[in-house]
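Database export, one record per block. Field names are fixed; values are copied verbatim from the stored entry.
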Amino acid sequence: MGRPITLAHPHVGDAEVAAAVRVLRSRKLVQGTEVAAFEAEFASLVAGRHCVAVSSGTTALHLALRACGIGPGDQVILPAFTFGATAHAVAHAGAAPVFADIDPETFTLDPDATAAAITPRTAAIVPVHLFGHPAAMEHLTVLAARHGLAVIEDAAQAVGAALDGTSAGAFGHAAAFSFYPTKNMHAIEGGMVVTGDEQVARRLRLLRNQGMSARYEYELIGFNARMTDVSAAVGRVQLRSLAPWTARRQAHAAVLTEQLDGVVTPSVRPGVVHVYHQYVIRHRNRDAVRQRLADVRIEAGIHYPTSLHRSSAYDQPADLPHTEQAAAEVLSLPVHPYLTPPDLARIVAAVIR
């Protein structure tokens, strides 16, 4: 039957352990030199934008919204086909999430559906670069500019992705990345907000550290959203391996796409660098396929079985047919860098059977 094949494989090697121990022994543990170095190094992935490290990807999105002035009375358009943190960040900022439908090929926010959802209260759009495929930013940024809306990218799953030569996270007013252990790179836990606006970056730094411009000088009401230096040190190590890990994900995805005859495999738009945080197929008998994989010790996932507008937390009567169909059909297959050729062959054989 073969060894178990897991959906994710968080990497913790000797270099990560050594980096964490080095910081622990230094006793300089929170938002210090390691965090500053991680921010500077991460900037190379996002066209040199300001980078502000925080405690999680959810926090990154929440603070990005707050720093861009989104709050009570505002509406924010986002997809319902995403992880709950996208909408939760909007709600925690005091704004109202408004769900729009997705492009059925890429699972990302549909520009026409977004345009139809705009009202006089709309203040921002939050495109999600889902599964590592960038949203249609060339259309969404034009739409936002026409209506005077902020664009805050949810790039939690898209580190290293790009569209027409521009990196995910470098399109909008701000963007949020996640370094959760199952992401393409991790920092144990953590997030990064990036922005091209120096004033937004300044507000972000205030917000993450209790609103203090100097010790005990409170310029605004902030949060404890600091990143630890242990997380930053691990993130710096992982950053050095991101390019080869991404290349392996892309190579594994190419094998799966070539060999999964008769299966609806991921679509990649022209000009896109897809980083395959997840490799997502569609199948009308999704649950049966998942069970077949489980029977031969291959883990598969459903991202996401319930669209947010149908969840108890939001329960909105929106008509989102492409979202509903995706939630009923998607299945994530293993694509992580540690798969072997025999692993890929087993995955293909099990799915086809």
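Remark 1: The chain has a mean pLDDT of 97.
Remark 2: The two ends are 15 Å apart (CA to CA).
End of record.
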